[in-house]
Specification:
The chain has 551 residues and is α+β, with helices and mostly antiparallel strands. The protein has 18 helices and eleven strands. The protein has a four-stranded antiparallel beta sheet with strand order 1-6-3-4, with no helix packed on it. Strands 5-2-7 form a three-stranded antiparallel beta sheet.
Length: 551
């Protein structure tokens, strides 16, 4: 009724233990979905917090009159209301009260009331301060949030424990690490099983040269005789001459960066200076003839017709700019839609790989159902590879159910990721990929192809956005090809399976220590706001650019 208040009060104890309490000084996110109906002229709905039961000391979290808005995310018209960073004091009786209510005439439906501890995010952004244990005990409870307690004596068990996990709130990170780590493990296990099953087809029947692995095989080759423990290439004078010439050339190029008086020995010819007719459009923009010692060395291990096809294919792609200039298509700055073409090419290439190797896959199934002879030099038997694929598919379905995403949608996205990784592995096996950025730069465009928001839902789209940013990073895109090379190098050098497994375990351990522990410890010690790339710049790049441009 007019001038009346209807409210729901939730009282929580002030405690640092258990999910049913709140902590003093810790930032929280308070949010709800609200759908208002027939609000009077002065009516509004609100959320307040206050200590104990003293309503006179209330603090408003939000006040709103927002009307329902029907959209794809909230078909019932509910709108999100709330506030980030709400902190509670330390009251006398140790209770805090959160009040949701409606003031004035009308009705409001509130659902999905949520209270999140966001201290892990806040501390990661701002960094945390160090205080000793004795200093921490003297602080007021409201001043203890966001602090790292250093033991008074570092030469103790408590000091050692602090060095290992003192900066990072591991209890908060365990579930995210398990969720994202589980997804990545399933993707990599699937790609490993597929490439292991295709190893004999690629290296034996189709004879792909594995250009990136050839230097490793040559340098680590088996000894020729007992008098020379190292591979023969180490005694090759041409190899040493090429190494010395390249070393001098690279040193001169690096030296010039610090001393402009050093002669410029780099080879970098911009073709746009020779093709400056406006009729070419943007065909020759940023097209250069550049010599890289690494790329040139790897190219020596590649087939000549493969090299020529890459050059011709690149020029055919660039010719679309000329075609667009001639027919007016270049009026659209997005033409020729590079990101979309790139993604479509990767997915179609994966389908072609499966089609042209269909006889091999049929042979894999037959051998897996038989005695499996001749599998001693394989990283996985055919039966083991097929069982691994079945296990990863079941694991992905269970993972999606565990994290609360739609299993069918996640299996579709998983298939697209695996298909792209298969293409990367195939290209690396035949052509080599010295550039680290060798994945579709905007993998997020796969979502509309798979059904978009109606298939994935809001949470699925958010997950896929971050997952797409992860798989298109400079490191992840190299892993499928490295798996093929690791297996083949191990086979040629007669490395035991157990040793390969230990090598992989060592790499995973190094990734966890360097990429996980060091990064998180630095994040909480320094703060993301002090990193070179701040959040505002990060979300404007890559996959996030699709969303931020729309906003």
């Amino acid at each position: 009724a007019p001038n009346r208040v209807a409210a729901l009060r939730i009282t929580l104890p002030l405690t640092n233990a258990g999910p049913m309490g709140v902590a003093a000084g810790v930032p929280y996110l308070i949010t709800t979905l609200a759908r208002a109906e027939k609000l009077g002229g002065t009516a509004y709905y609100f959320c307040r917090v206050y200590d104990d039961d003293d309503a006179a000391q209330d603090r408003e979290v939000f006040v709103s009159r927002k009307a329902p808005e029907t959209n794809a995310l909230q078909p019932d018209g509910a709108v999100r209301a709330g506030m980030y960073g709400v902190r509670f004091n330390a009251p006398a009786r140790g209770n805090v009260t959160i009040e949701f209510g409606l003031h004035g005439e009308g009705a409001v439906c509130m659902r999905a009331l949520e209270l999140y501890d966001v201290s892990a995010i806040e501390d990661a952004h701002l960094g945390r301060k160090l205080v000793t244990r004795s200093q921490f005990e003297r602080l007021d409870p409201n001043e203890r949030s966001g602090l790292i307690v250093v033991p008074d004596r570092m030469a103790s068990w408590e000091g050692l424990r602090f060095i290992v996990c003192g900066y990072v709130p591991w209890r908060v990170w365990l579930v995210p690490i398990a969720a994202w780590g589980g997804w990545m493990a399933l993707v990599l296990a699937t790609l490993f099983a597929i490439t292991a099953l295709l190893r004999r087809q690629w290296t034996g029947n189709e004879r792909y040269p594995l250009p990136m692995a050839q230097p490793c095989i040559a340098l680590l080759g088996e000894p020729r005789d007992e008098l020379h423990p190292f591979a023969g290439i180490w005694r090759n004078r041409m190899m040493w001459a090429g190494f010395i010439i390249t070393l001098v050339w690279c040193v001169l190029r690096a030296w010039r960066m610090y001393n402009p008086n050093v002669p410029d020995v780099s080879i970098n010819v911009a073709l746009q200076t020779y093709f400056d007719d406006p009729g070419w459009g943007r065909m020759w923009d940023d097209v250069t003839i550049r010599v890289s010692s690494l790329t040139l060395g790897l190219a020596l291990f590649m087939e000549l017709h493969v090299l020529l096809s890459m050059v011709v294919g690149y020029l055919l792609f660039r010719s679309q700019y000329w075609l667009g200039e001639q027919y007016g298509l270049a009026a659209d700055r997005e033409y020729p839609y590079v990101d979309q073409q790139q993604l479509g090419a990767y997915l179609m290439y994966a389908l072609l790989i499966l089609w042209f190797t269909r006889k091999h896959w049929w042979r894999v199934v037959r051998v897996a159902l038989g005695a499996q002879t001749g599998m001693a030099d394989e990283a996985l038997t055919y039966r083991g590879g097929l069982l691994t694929l079945a296990a990863t598919l079941a694991g992905m379905y269970g993972w999606a159910r565990w994290v609360g995403l739609r299993p069918e949608a996640m299996l579709l996205f998983f298939a697209a990721v695996v298909a792209t990784g298969l293409t990367v592995a195939r290209l690396r096996a035949e052509c080599g990929t010295p550039s680290s950025a060798f994945m579709p730069t905007s993998f997020i465009y796969v979502l509309p192809l798979l059904g978009g928001l109606s298939v994935f839902g809001a949470q699925g789209v958010i997950f896929a956005t971050f997952a797409a940013a992860l798989i298109t990073s400079k490191g992840f895109c190299q892993l499928p090809g490295l798996q093929v090379e690791l297996v083949e190098v191990g086979r040629r050098l007669h490395v035991r399976r157990r040793q390969v497994v230990m090598t992989v375990a060592l790499g995973v351990g190094g990734a966890i220590v360097i990429g996980g522990w060091v990064y998180l410890s630095s994040l909480y010690a320094i703060g993301a706001q002090n990193y070179p790339i701040v959040t505002a710049e990060f979300v404007g790049q890559g996959n996030f650019k699709v969303f931020t441009e729309l906003v």
